[in-house]
Give the backbone structure.
Amino acid sequence: MNKSIVIILFFIIFASCKEAVKKENIQITETSRVEHLPYYNGESFTPHWITPNTEEEKQFHKIPDFKLVDQLGDTLTQKSFNNQIYITDFFFTSCPGICLKMTNNMTKVQEAFLDHPEVAILSHSVTPSIDSVSVLKTYAEKNGVIDSKWHLVTGDKTEIYNLGRNEYFVENDLGIPKDINDFLHTENFLLIDKNKHIRGIYNGLNRASIAQLITDVNALLEES
């Protein structure tokens, strides 16, 4: 092959590689522009990118007040979580299936934020007629629940189911109407910010999803 042709081919290949690297760098820069977590306001969990501490954020969907009782017999309301981020889920103590794995994974979240009083955990019983305060206390002791960090709550079934389905949107059965007679059962964990907005949904059975939850809690701590 002619020497001059080889030299020309070399410069063409070199220029192409250089351009490819340049484009890749641009993509990385674009991907890293997101500065805060999205907001959610419905069962489809479509992300909304809202600037925190704006009028739009103030008008966005919030978890309403509630009145429930935890494993210590203490009454909890939204005021109990003032100035706190909290992670929430729905379970029952006699669950033979996924609940124990969810509890084990939530324990990892508890451990990650033991030294952060701004982070709490709220687990709702979906069988409140069975899960009395004493039953919840026994379950807490058996599973390493730290009372000051993690609240297992019971209360009025209608209120708990309404919170789960219509406020936290924890079930994935889009468009399927349900009432109080339909059992509420879900593996989802939700991340709630200090202003009571939903900021993330996670599979409570998946290790990678739990790791992402911990990362997102840290992001919220920086945001607030």
Remarks:
- The beta strands are 68-69, 75-76, 85-91, 119-125, 150-153, 188-192, 198-203.
